[in-house]
Amino acid sequence: MTAYEQTLDDVAFVDAWFRHRKDRIGSDVRDISVVSVERLTRGVSRQTWSLDALVDGTPRSFIVRRDHETGAVIPTLLTTEYEVYRGLNDAPVPTARALWFEDDPQWQPDHRAAYVREKIAGDWYLPFIGDDSPEHDERRISASKEHLTQLARLHTADWKSLGFGDVFAVPESPADCAANLIRDNLRRLAEYQFEPSPVLAEGVAQLLESAPRDVPRISLCKGTNGHGEEVWADGRIVAMSDWELACLGDPAYDFAQLQEMVPEIVRDGREVWGWEQALEFYREQSGIDVSLERIHYYRAVNGLLQFLYTHHSGSQVKRLGVTDLRFVWTAWENSFRSNIRLAQEYGFEPEGSAIK
Fold first, then answer.
1. Percent of the chain scored above 70 by pLDDT?
2. Contact, 8 vs 39, CB < 8 A?
3. Same domain, 112 and 146
4. Range of the domain at 76
5. Nearest one of 325, 261, 237, 253 to 294, comparing CA atoms
6. What totals of helices (H) and strands (E) does the chain contain, helices first?
């Protein structure tokens, strides 16, 4: 190990690391040679590195995920993120296969924990999804249906047999989903909260009082999802990605965090596609009813989730003296926005501060 810098920038080290762990890639792997390593720029919460290699002469690509040097922006542990991917190896939804979590200091890049998963070829960007031109209607609806189909498969997956009851807080019943989500997030907040927040207390009180109880089932939920969060190829999702806000709860939770994948298309005064059609299509695929009322509720809960990660960043800035811009910006600008969103939940909205 002394011959290497033991960093992800050192291809020789990464090559030695992957050779050492080649059995994690496959029990029949005889040889592996790392060709290149590159840090990806998308994403803020953690570092993501892309790695190209030859595995028994065949080109393969991998992803390495780890926290920033000072930690993660979000409070979700790196080990939890890995366990989600590992549990999804056997799930009926397309995901990248988790390979191993590196907890041996001798092989940790920069002496920081990291995990490795396969890299799935594809693209996150759908150039037509936001284009309201009529010629894109069919492709936009098709992409929306594909996304809804994968959400349906996720929400109907047997989370118990997949082991997610050991990863996430389990609601006492479907009616407890919303309250369980809030309790679990407040428990995590208590681990690093460094100052009181009246707006959080008031907002949470309102959320608990209005928590929906007409929830049809407990499902494995993804969290952030939709455009920019999944990997696409040839009009299909080949990998669902970004599981940092995953949980066990109400399927409506995912619809509240869905990004751009329910385009509202109106032609000649008739709604061709929108939330009504999307939720009906999802119901046909999953057998699960999701109401707009529950979706609106979890959009309000997003204020609590936002408070968690902004306060988590703020705690690192305050306690550890972190000066990394991503942490400072999150702790300041995003924290302001989360406070406004929570304030809206109990009827207070400073003029000009509306957060949608």
1. 96
2. yes
3. no
4. 11-118
5. 253
6. 11, 13
